[in-house]
Amino acid sequence: MISISHPQWDPPLTLNNRLGAMYTSKSQKSRVLTELWVEGNMYCPVCGNCSVSKYPANTPVADFFCPSCKADFELKSKNVKSSYQPRVIVDGSWNTMLARLRSASNPHLLFMSRQDAHIQNFIFIPNFFFSPSVIAPRTPLSAKARRAGWQGCNILYGAIPAIGRIPLIAQGIPVPRHVVDKAYKQSCALSIDRLAARGWLLDVMKCVENIKKDNFSLKDVYAFIPYLRERHPQNAHIEEKIRQQLQMLRDRGLIQFISRGTYCKSPTH
Ligand SMILES: [Zn+2]
Questions:
Q1: For site-directed labelling of 232, which of 28, 129, 178, 216 has its Cα 20 to 30 A away?
Q2: pLDDT digits over 12-40, tens only?
Q3: What is the Å distance from ligand 1's center to 208 Cα?
Q4: Average pLDDT for 118-127
């Protein structure tokens, strides 16, 4: 039975190539086609509004917004060879990204991977999963370039915890809206406003996800110290920080404490 609050979502899984016929630039064409697809088919995964609206072109804030809850969305797409998951997503200016992270207006990300016109995966990443530790600057453009000195950035997609990568379409199949809604609500357990604290919490969550068993010890998490040190080189008390983050994950219901130094992943994670 379909719940009234979660109508069925049955979008076309192919981009309408005819609409992009007038564009010769491949990147411009894919931009136009993916934007048209989102405009015509996407609902707001935050509040459930039946559509999202497009900002005027070249609006620096975001690409889409929800007219109901005012959530902002950035859209990225990538043409892929198979149903592979990318390690990084190429994004725009590094400085703009840092300014966005520090402000309250950081958009949510919608990421589409497609094989030519066929949509494979469409992933929603809530804005509170973005911290400086999942963004990496690219090399600035050389002095000869038209925009010399301009520096772009990459989103380190693989470093974002799985709980924050919510599939809207998975392997070419639309995910029912009630499943997306539940996944979004679960991911909100990791929502944290203070940017400095956000990186640590998400990085330790990522380590916990990477432990391949449900019950684990502090030692299992300490095995990730080299990974965490690389991300937070300025912190000299990593073990203490890890224990503190595990407490926060427990307080947010993402893990449970069984006994001293022994933990358990919560059933949904
Ligand atoms: Zn909304």
A1: 216
A2: 999 988 877 788 888 889 999 999 999 99
A3: 31
A4: 96
CATH H-level superfamily of 17-190? Dam replacing family, catalytic PD-(D/E)XK domain (3.40.210.30)
What are the distances in angstroms from CA 36 to CA 15, 18, 29, 53? 9, 12, 11, 10
Please list all protein residues whose beta carbon sits less than 5 angstroms from ligand 1, which is an ion: 44, 46-47, 49, 66, 68-69, 71
Check residue 267 and give its pLDDT: 73
Dist. CA 170 → ligand 1 center (Å): 22
**How much is the pLDDT for 213?**
94
Q: What is the whole-number distance in angstroms between the Cα of residue 219 and the centre of ligand 1?
A: 41
The Cα–Cα gap between 174 and 176 comes to: 6
For residue 131, give both structure tokens.
Answer: 């911290």
Give me ligand 1 centre to Cα 257, in Å: 35
Could you give the 3-state DSSP secondary structure of residue 12? coil
Give the range among 74-88, 109-123, 164-178 with minimum mean pLDDT.
74-88
Delimit the domains of the chain by residue range.
17-190, 195-265
